[in-house]
Design brief:
Largest sheet of chain B: 6 strands, antiparallel, barrel
CATH class of chain A: Mainly Alpha
Distance between the termini of chain A: 20 Å
Order of helices and strands of chain A: HHHHHHH
Number of domains of chain A: 1
Number of strands of chain A: 0
Mean pLDDT of chain B: 83
Radius of gyration of chain A: 15 Å
CATH superfamily of the largest domain in chain B: Rod shape-determining protein MreC, domain 1
Structural class of chain A: mainly alpha
Oligomer: heterodimer
Distance between the termini of chain B: 50 Å
CATH class of the largest domain in chain B: Mainly Beta
Chain lengths: 164, 260
């Protein structure tokens, strides 16, 4: 695995997330969290527990920028826990996943399912935990839908441009 | 014993997952209860500094409206100065908003004053139009404010016309409006009634404007009015705020702790 590439990608998405996407105050329910791109594309060569610790660290840094300590941490740990099982279910030939999980490595259909499931799971967890009550469930679901669509388009768009 | 070890090894990933999630949930509940550490928030010096630089860039585009706001504030201050009484309990510290959100359920804003400027958790924040919120987390140079447009906030308010007390809450929908709870049905509520701070807590002095009644609904069987308040403070355009410092706050807190 190429660590410089992974860390470079992490810094790129964090800069975009903090300077651009966290500043979006256009529509009330639009909060795309594109920083999870770096977690989604991480190769699955590392031990599962190390994967989850990386997720926790990435989530914790994001929490500090959002004033919501623990929320992104919990969502990212969950994402990293589910990830290898999902890949196992979607992809047969795992030799191609040593570099990164990308459109080129697993194909459009598997990549689409993979990104949609994990992004919706992550965003739903974040918005549910941030609301911390059932009183706003309608708004939480709307927020999850709108934000997930944007994140999914951006993640798949990045893959189409760079790894077709 | 060996079997137990085998089982533990087999499910080690799941156990790591559970342990990490428990830690994350502890962070969430601790932070929801009382965010003590400013390091893990936007009051963190580096993160607040970054937001401040960003708002500097955006600041140039709103100079005209800021000028108007400052002129209005000058006039109001001059009025206040002439009406000032001799017992000065309240002190004001001005601050600039370096970061804020207005369209989430739990909105926050970060200001460029911290413990070095005498800011303490629990102090009130207002601007020239009305109430903004309450100081929640304090760092050395920056602080995080819990605004009234956060679903965690409760603010004691009263009607200016007859001193009837209610609690201001936010429903998470629109940063221009909030709800006034605990107003019993025998009270007559009219559109346009003015709502001000009650002065019951040491956070705000009495009579700071909060908003006006937009509409009031009384459903059959309810024992309280459902009152929608149009807030005086325009959170979408908030640039400068004042922190309200009560010279007697320490004494009042000590008294209240003594009662517990």
């Amino acid at each position: 695995m190429d660590w410089t590439k992974q860390i470079g990608r992490y810094i790129l998405v964090m800069v975009l997330q903090v300077l651009l996407f966290n500043q979006l105050q256009l529509w009330g329910a639009c909060h795309p969290y594109i920083y999870i791109l770096c977690l989604l594309m991480l190769p699955i060569t590392l031990p599962h527990s190390v994967d989850m610790i990386i997720g926790a660290a990435v989530g914790l840094v994001m929490d500090i920028f959002c004033n919501c300590l623990g929320v992104h941490t919990a969502a990212c740990i969950l994402l990293m826990y589910v990830r290898p099982y999902l890949i196992g279910a979607l992809v047969n030939d795992k030799d191609r996943l040593n570099e990164q999980i990308s459109l080129r490595a697993i194909g459009m259909e598997a990549m689409f399912k993979y990104v949609v499931i994990l992004v919706v799971l992550h965003h739903l967890t974040v918005f549910m935990l941030a609301a911390w009550s059932w009183a706003h469930i309608g708004f939480v679901l709307l927020e999850t839908f709108v934000s997930s669509v944007i994140t999914i388009l951006l993640v798949l768009g990045y893959n189409t441009l760079r790894y077709r | 014993m060996q079997n137990l070890l085998k089982i533990l090894l087999r499910y080690s990933n799941f156990l790591v997952f559970i342990a990490l999630e428990v830690a994350a949930f502890m962070l969430i509940s601790l932070h929801n209860a009382a965010p003590r550490s400013s390091i893990f928030s936007t009051a963190n010096s580096f993160i607040a500094w970054q937001h401040e630089q960003l708002s500097e860039i955006g600041g140039y585009f709103s100079l005209r409206s800021q000028n108007e706001q400052l002129a209005a504030e000058n006039a109001a201050l001059r009025n206040a100065l002439s009406a000032q009484d001799s017992t000065q309990i309240w002190h004001y510290e001005t601050a600039k908003v370096v970061q804020m959100t207005t369209d989430e359920l739990h909105n926050y804003l970060t200001i460029n004053r911290g413990s070095k400027d005498g800011i303490v958790r629990g102090q009130g924040v207002r601007n020239s139009d009305g109430v903004v919120g309450i100081i929640r987390t304090v760092g050395p140079n920056y602080s995080v404010v819990l605004p009234i447009i956060n679903t965690h906030t409760n603010l004691s308010c009263r009607f200016a016309k007859n001193d009837y007390i209610g609690t201001l809450q936010w429903d998470g929908k629109d940063s221009r409006f909030a709800m006034l709870a605990d107003v019993a049905t025998h009270m007559v509520v009219n559109e346009g009634d003015t709502i001000v701070t009650s002065g019951l807590s040491p956070v705000f002095p009495e009579g700071i404007p909060v908003g006006i009644v937009e509409n009031s609904v009384l459903k059959e069987g309810d024992s309280f009015h459902t009152i929608r308040i149009r807030l005086n403070t325009n959170f979408k355009r908030l640039k400068y705020v004042e922190i309200v410092q009560n010279a007697h706050q320490q004494e009042l807190e000590q008294l209240q702790h003594g009662l517990d």
